[in-house]
Known about the structure:
By secondary structure, the protein is mainly beta. 5% of the residues lie in helices and 61% in strands.
Amino acid sequence: MRSTRLGVLLGLLLAVPLAGAEAPDEPEEPDFFFLTGGPYTQKKNSPQIIWANQWFRDQSGAARTRDYTGAGRFEWGLTERLEVDFEFGALAIQERVAGTATFAEHGSDDLLLGVRYRLLREAAAPFTLTFGPQVIAPVASRRRGLGTGRVSYAWDMAAAKDWGGPVFLVASVNLRLTPDVPSFPDGSGPEFDLSEIGWGTALGWRALERPAPGGANHDIHVLLEVGGARADDIEEGRRLRSTQVQFAPGFRYGFLNRAGALAEIGLSFPLGLTRAAPGWGLILQTQFELPSLF
C-alpha cells in the first residue's frame, strides 16, 4: 500500500514540467536492472526512488517455500560523480511441508547506507566504472530467522559499456562481510565471520525508442540477466556455504517527459540454475528519477 501511494504521488510529479528544467542533451543512460547493480550515478542534486516487489517460489520434495521481499532504494547525487544511497525493505517467509505450515515470519529488512563514486566515464574512457563502501544496519530479526543481527560492511563495484546503439552491457560485484555472528539466535555459541560475494551481469537491447512531441520520449528495453551469490550462513550452529545462480529475462518501459523527469516500470522472471537458488519467481520494479532540484 505504501509503495502504491508513493508511485501515484511521484507519477503526478512527473506529469508536471519543472520550472526552468530542460530535457537532457545526452541520450538516457540505461540504469534499470533487476539482478545487476547499475554504475550510472545520479547527477548533482538529482534524486531517484526505486521500489521492487520480489516473489520467489521453491520446492524440494514435499517442502515448499515462499519468499517475498519489498526492496526500496533512494539515490541522491552529491556531485556529478558522487552519490549517496539508502536501502530499506520488508521480508516475508513461509514454509510448508506436505501442506502443513512449518515456518512463517515477516518483518523489516536490514538498512543500507552507501556512497558511490564514478571513477570512469565512457565519454573519456572505454567503459563506465563506479565503486564505493556500504554499511548495513542489522534491523532484520535474527530470532525470527530474517537476518544475522550484526552490522555488515560491503564494497560495491559496477561497470558498463554502452555502444550508443541498440545494445549495452552491465556487470556488478558486491563484496560483503558480517563479523562475529553467534552460532545460535539467542547469542550463544562460537562466533563466525560470514562473507558473501554477490554478482550480476545484464545484456540489454533498446527494442523501442520513440520520441514524442515537446522533447518527451517513450522507450522499451529488453534485458537478459544472470546473477547470483556465494554466501555463508549458519544452520544448527554450523557455518555453511551455498551458491545461488539465477537467469532472469525481463523488460522495462520508460517515459521521459519534456522536463527531464523519468518514470520506469519493469517485469522480470528469474529462474534458479543451482540447487540453492529459488526455483522461479517474479520481480515487479518501478523507478522515478527527477532532474536537478536546485
